[in-house]
Amino acid sequence: MTLLTVSAILGVLVVAATLVIRLGQPLAPRFDVRAVAADTLPVPPGETVVAAGAADGALILVTRDADGAERLRLYDATDGAPIRTVEIARTP
């Protein structure tokens, strides 16, 4: 009985210490999203921004042209350089 009590107390202490250590650390972002603002990213003429978002190290813009074609544009979050453009195909 005493061994069970001691092991339960040690288990609670380990969990409490782990929580104190992990929750005591400041949250640091993986990258500085403020380095590039979404409204400063280069968008081709004739296209409008439909949506904007952020992923791990990238900023995402969804654009639509006059014909209604939509594109997903990925930009580097640190300098705003274009990474990739993907055509979005809608199925009826």
Q: What descriptive keywords fit this protein?
A:
single chain, alpha+beta, 4 strands, elongated
Write up this protein.
Helix content is 24%, strand content 32%. The protein is α+β, with helices and mostly antiparallel strands and 92 residues long. The chain has one domain (2-88). The chain has a 4-stranded antiparallel sheet with strand order 1-2-3-4, with no helix packed on it. The longest helix has 22 residues, at 2-23. The chain is elongated, with a radius of gyration of 24 Å. The chain starts with a helix and ends with a strand. The model has no long low-confidence stretch (mean pLDDT 84).
Main β-sheet, spatial strand arrangement: 1-2-3-4
Helix content: 10-25%
What would you call the shape? elongated
Identify the quaternary structure here: single chain
Major sheet: 4 strands, antiparallel
Q: Taking all residues together, what is the mean pLDDT?
A: 84
Number of strands: 4
Q: What is the total domain count?
A: 1
Distance between the termini: 68 Å
Radius of gyration: 24 Å
Order of helix and strand elements from N to C terminus: HEEEE
- Uncertain stretches: none
Query: Number of helical runs?
Result: 1
Secondary-structure-derived class = alpha+beta
Percentage of residues in DSSP E strands: 25-35%
